[in-house]
Every structure is written in structure tokens, then in C-alpha cells.
Amino acid sequence: MRVSFTEPAEEDLEAIGDWIVRDNPDRAITFVRELRRSCLQIGSRPRSYPFVEHRLNDGIRRRVHGNYLIFYRVTDTVEILRILPGARDYGRILFGDDDLD
User: Fold this and answer.
1) pTM for the whole structure
2) So what's the pLDDT on residue 21?
């Protein structure tokens, strides 16, 4: 299945790279490539990953990549919505609330 990245997801990848480059420029490049590849791999099994709990009606799923969470929605394509550090308050970022685990 085709995978597309929203503008916020692209901005997340850039921000992740910018954060890592401060300490390890070489690793920043390779990590962002790995993270992007992990997103693209969702296209081969888009329904394999769990829905975000408490928000099943939104149809948003989550894949873990290291300490990062890849949020996406499956329609006729896989739409990568955001890529966030697992420690962030993703409920507030994605939905404007903080009632998620």
C-alpha cells in the first residue's frame, strides 16, 4: 500500500534529525533514514499495528520505533500523521486532549 507523509510528519522527522545532530551528526542521518524506512514498511502490513487506545473512532494506529511513536491512518493509502518521542504528551498533540495512557 502506498505511504504518504503529512507536513507535520515531515517536520517531525526534521526536528528529530536536528535534535540528534547536536550530539552525533552521523547518527542523525542514519537514524532519520531508519525512521523513514520504518514508516514506509507500514505499507506492507498497515493493519498489523494497534489502534491508539481510547481513540478507536479516529482510526489512528501506532507503530513503535525505538523511543519514537509513528502515528498513522489507513484509508486507500497509509497516511503518516506524526512521528513523536514516546515521552511526549501525544494525546494533547494529536487530539488536543491528555486522556491517553
Assistant:
1) 0.89
2) 94
